[in-house]
């Protein structure tokens, strides 16, 4: 008996294409080519940074909370988890893992942009605000911690991801939760260690630290909205790309 397969309609073919790649997404992802290369390079960079923490121990290695007292390391961990989901999606061509990666990216990318902005901005004012002189990092390690995660996450976002769907209000709420969870965490670590991870915190009073974290929540929410805008400028909005001819 013949089992000739029924030809797929144009609408079914269009749906399959949309599932494989959002029309505004620049490059195919998940995929075992460029997407996998980007995620592999990112994970290699992040692994180098974590290895540096272990191979160059200091007093923070012995302190309560380890290096997770630093927002930098929390952000690096989120970036690592994001890219781990990304490479897993590339390897298995899994849309579920790809969707999970994109959801986590909505936390990781704005946080890393905030970290890079604060770190390099404060360093430009006075390096001692963010790191004691005895804990200064070599340039390669410094860039690995405070710039590479931002660049890799932006590359993943702008080239390998569909547009974010988060709106301004949810972005603000998410940023506020993250900022104040970190504030509670470092205050708890302070009760155990007797010092703050960043010298700047030592210079601020309780109310000033509260204002700082509230301000960071607002800035992170603004970054989320700005990143969505940049995505639209680079890739287009709706179903149209810049320069696309129908």
UniProtKB/TrEMBL annotation:
Membrane topology reported for the UniProt record: Multi-pass membrane protein
Sorted UniProt keywords: Membrane, Transmembrane, Transmembrane helix
InterPro entries: ADTRP_AIG1 (IPR006838)
Subcellular location: Endomembrane system
Gene Ontology cellular component terms for the protein in this record: endomembrane system; membrane
Pfam families in UniProt: Far-17a_AIG1
Highest taxon of the lineage: Eukaryota
Protein name (record): Integral membrane protein
Segments crossing the lipid bilayer: 70-91, 167-186, 210-231
């Amino acid at each position: 008996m013949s089992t000739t397969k029924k030809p797929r309609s144009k609408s079914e073919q269009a749906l399959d294409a949309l599932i494989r790649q959002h029309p505004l997404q620049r490059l195919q992802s998940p995929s075992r080519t460029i997407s996998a290369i980007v995620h592999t390079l990112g994970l290699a960079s992040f692994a180098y940074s974590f290895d540096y923490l272990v191979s160059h121990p200091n007093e923070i290695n012995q302190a309560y909370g380890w290096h997770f007292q630093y927002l930098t390391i929390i952000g690096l961990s989120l970036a690592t988890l994001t890219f781990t989901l990304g490479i897993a999606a590339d390897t298995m061509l899994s849309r579920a893992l790809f969707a999970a990666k994109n959801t986590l990216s909505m936390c990781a990318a704005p946080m890393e942009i905030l970290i890079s902005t604060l770190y390099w901005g404060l360093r430009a004012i006075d390096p001692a605000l963010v790191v004691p002189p005895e804990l200064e990092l070599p340039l390669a390690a410094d860039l690995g911690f405070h710039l590479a995660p931002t660049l890799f996450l932006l590359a993943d976002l702008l080239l390998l991801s569909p547009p974010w769907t988060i709106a301004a209000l949810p972005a603000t709420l998410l940023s506020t939760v993250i900022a104040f969870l970190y504030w509670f965490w470092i205050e708890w670590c302070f009760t155990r260690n007797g010092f703050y991870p960043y010298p700047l915190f030592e210079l601020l009073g309780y109310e000033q630290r509260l204002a700082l974290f509230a301000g960071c929540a607002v800035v992170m929410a603004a970054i989320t909205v700005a990143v969505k805008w940049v995505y639209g400028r680079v890739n287009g909005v709706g179903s149209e790309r810049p320069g696309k001819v129908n």
